[in-house]
Amino acid sequence: MKERDMIEEIKNVSFNGLSINEISEDQLSLHVRNAGVVGAGGAGFPTHVKLSAKAEIVIVNAAECEPLLKTDQQLAARYPEQVVKGLSIAMKATGAQQGIIALKAKYHEAIAALEPLLSANMQLSIMPDIYPAGDEVITIWLTTGRRVPPGGIPLNIGVVVNNVQTLINVAYAVEGKPVTTRTLTLTGAVKKPITVTVPIGTSLRDVLELAGGVDKELTYINGGPMMGTLIPDLSAPVTKTTGGLIGLPKDHPLIKRKTMSVEAVLRIAKTVCEQCNFCTELCPRHMIGHELSPHKLIRAVNYKSIGDPLLITSALTCSECGVCEAYACPVGISPLRVNVALKAELRAQGIKYQGELGKEDPMAKHRLIPSSRLMDRLRLRPWYKEAPLSLEVYEPDEVNLKLQQHIGAPAVPVVKVGDVVRSGQLIGEIPAGALGAKVHASIDGTVTQITPQAITIRKGGATK
After folding, report:
1. Contacts of 392 (CB under 8 A, 6+ apart)
2. Closest by Cα among 382, 457, 21 to 199
3. Is the pTM of this model over 0.90?
4. DSSP annotation string for 24-65
5. Which residues contact 5 (CB under 8 A, 6 or more apart)?
6. Is the separation of the CB atoms in 73 and 79 below 8 Å?
7. pLDDT surpasses 50 at 464
8. Could you report the per-residue pLDDT of 274-325, keeping only the tens digit for each?
9. Phi, psi of 367 (to 5 degrees)
């Protein structure tokens, strides 16, 4: 297909015979709602709500923030038409006049695949290979120069951000296909690094079999090495937001840091913090003008000094990127964990941050961290390997579909035990008047269990 013809096909993507331009913004948002699309690169904010808002710019976050993970860059290279279709739909739904696909210069295959498909009001924004490019606030700043205010959201400055997999799901939603699978990278010290697509609800243990099996000498992280969380139970299911699985030796410094208790973190902070300011100088939020100053928060906690109440509440603006603990601190303190503890206490008391956006650090762009240097600091270089995208979709015998895979209220079951369901069939509805997302069966089979948390479906009994 010629490039010009391909662009025209994307512009004329249809739903029930209608092109995007013939479908109203409300209808587009409704299709996305019915498909159960949520943010695949973050906490799972329901995408139909984002697309119901009005914005000036839609950004596709294809930067893949974390070291080792490769999902978005590979999906963009393999399915560029769907990415651009999803961007077109998001722009139409929000009324945006500009679309930006933000990705790193080293993603040569994705750039080559996407560039010929862009329409006049779309552009690629090529970013350096730094961390945390991929954090939505930093991505917006690097690509547009706009700064999200502390405690604010991208819509406050006229921007909507979605990642690659989210917009691929948006493109399929307009074709009537709900979200039933998740693509994720299996990497680290696993036997066979690979990027796979599996039905949502597949157990993490089953997924790891695709990478050579579970190794008892490894500890596994859900997500990236910086912001990911330890997996206590490999029987847990894949959700719409599962970012990736990284296996590392149990004695790896990253694992030791993530298993350290809050009490130990506070004890170390009080003992060895020398107020060098490195954590603040390298904090991405601080660099773009947020008041967040990790070294001051450590001081306030160490000496039980309330000080400026605005300073304490600035912990609420922490993105938990991990730069302060994993890269900046020369003595092994974790300002991140202190911030997380402060955030939990402040939220429990219903306290919100009321500060304003300050001046941008004139050295900000020179203080962002090269990904290669970060990998060396994290001691991840031995596991920086290719994880090729498999085009096969794994078929498990059973899935356990969580009713809450998103921000908001859990879905309400609309099936009962013993029901025979087909892949793509609605099994969980959004509660009336609540923020939420629909849940669909990810395999053909029979509903074997329903709890307040999840619906289990086992293969067998499905009609053709």
Report:
1. 196, 197
2. 457
3. yes
4. -HHHHHHHHHHTT-B-TTSS--BHHHHHHS--SEEEEE-S--
5. none
6. no
7. no
8. 899 999 999 999 999 999 999 999 988 887 765 677 788 999 999 999 999 9
9. -105, 0
